[in-house]
Amino acid sequence: MLKFGMVIGLSIALLGASFGDAAPTKALAEGAEYYVSPSGSDSNAGTLASPWKTLQHAADVATPGSKVYVRGGVYNQKLKITRSGSAAQGAITFSNYASEVPVIDGTGLTVSGSEGIVDLTDASYVTINGFEIRNYTTTKSGVMPMGIYVHGAGSNITLSNNKVHDIKNTATPKGMSGRDAHGIAVYGTKAPDSIKNITIDGNELYNLVLGSSESLVVNGNVDTFNITNNVIHDNDNIGIDVIGFEGKSPNAAYDQARNGLIKGNKVYNITSSKNPSYEKGSTEAGGIYVDGGKDSIIEQNYSYNNDIGIEIASEHAGKSTSNITVRSNLIYKNSLTGIAMGGYDTERGSTVNCKIVNNTLYKNDSLGGGNGQLYVQYDTQNNVIKNNIMVADSSDVLIYNEYTKNTGNIVDYNLYFAPGGNANASWTWKSKEYTGFSAYKTGTGNDAHSMFADPKFVNVSLNDYHLQSTSPAIDAGSTDTAIIGEYDLDGNARVQGAAVNIGAYE
């Protein structure tokens, strides 16, 4: 957390003595603290008593270790950052001052190409904290407004505690292309140098009109990222996306976002149903989506009232999403399905060597389309699906797998339940439908240690999916320490009894 209080007497005196009548940029000291205010002037000294006026002036003169504190008010201006901090001297930090809220407002500003109203190019050791970023919009096809855009290469960037909303592209769509926007976007567009060690924490993103793009995305040559504790809601396309194989990196060997942690986020009301870039009524927007990313963990998130809760898939033929662990998440009341994996048709790629463990899925497939709680699509290989609670919605469908290209997948130690009871519960595996738990186990060889039983949640009417003390899910899971993680959704130790609980809560 940034320290906003400061001792300014000596600093102001020294700055005043240094500046005299000279231009302020000639006396900037490394590691200094500077101030921007709507009532300031760029010819001022940049102190608390004599602040600058524009964010861009601060960005143009800041040096490693500088802290730029921005006073509350509206800044109808863009912020372009190309300077970097350093490991030795510290980050260049732009932050709100004390409890004040600076608002970067894009009203009336032109979007040029793919552009963030806050735009970081080839920057390292930069922090953006505590801003409201809003109203950066276009009606023009082929340009892409973004709230915060990090691109090129760089490292050690932190985007924290910002509120990003009303970033919109409202152009008339031409199919899926040309009508795009992002709330926060990180594009690694160089190689072999990546965007590395980026933290996106504690932000809120909402009321975004995105076309075929995403609320928060890491794409291309992005290596080692943390997307944590964000709240993303009420947008017309994907909430969080981790992407590979789209050609963002000039070298295909580096064109996958990787080594990421997606943790502690709350994603809800994400739907493409009214997005004109899609067919009318389409429900294709995932709360959390990995499309071609690899080597990442998705844990302790809430994903609800979206089209899809969590999806780990690949849209690119011959390419795979791989080594993703999805664990200890609560996924409920999503309209199409809870968790989806594999390519959405035979022209897509695969999901390989992924783990789906200790999640609670409750009454997804809420539109009754029959996709179930777990939707296993085309070409899934060597994945592990264990320790999950799956409670069907009115369709009574628990797992739906219409494709036969399904090899080496392990499904076990799960707890299933359906409102129609065992007699009506349905599983489809390798395109064959089974009704009743016994028929499904016998026909597929899956779930030898699993059960069909009421999980006995505390209070589903209040969306409290903790387990009652008499729940059959308690101590009934597979204690595979290599994949279950250390903590449950509440942050409690993952194993407390004789074995691990099934579901998100210990």
From TrEMBL:
Keywords: Secreted, Signal. InterPro entries: Beta_helix, Choice_anch_Q_dom, PbH1, Pectin_lyas_fold, Pectin_lyase_fold/virulence, Polysaccharide_Lyase_9. Residues 1-22 form the signal peptide. The keyword Signal applies. It is found in: Secreted. The keyword Transmembrane does not apply. Its main location: secreted. Residues 183-360 form the Right handed beta helix domain. Pfam families: Beta_helix. One of its GO terms (cellular component) is extracellular region. GO terms for molecular function: carbon-oxygen lyase activity, acting on polysaccharides. NCBIfam families: choice_anch_Q (NF041518). PANTHER family: PECTATE LYASE (EUROFUNG), SECRETED SUGAR HYDROLASE. This is Right handed beta helix domain-containing protein. It comes from Paenibacillus albilobatus. The gene is ywoF.
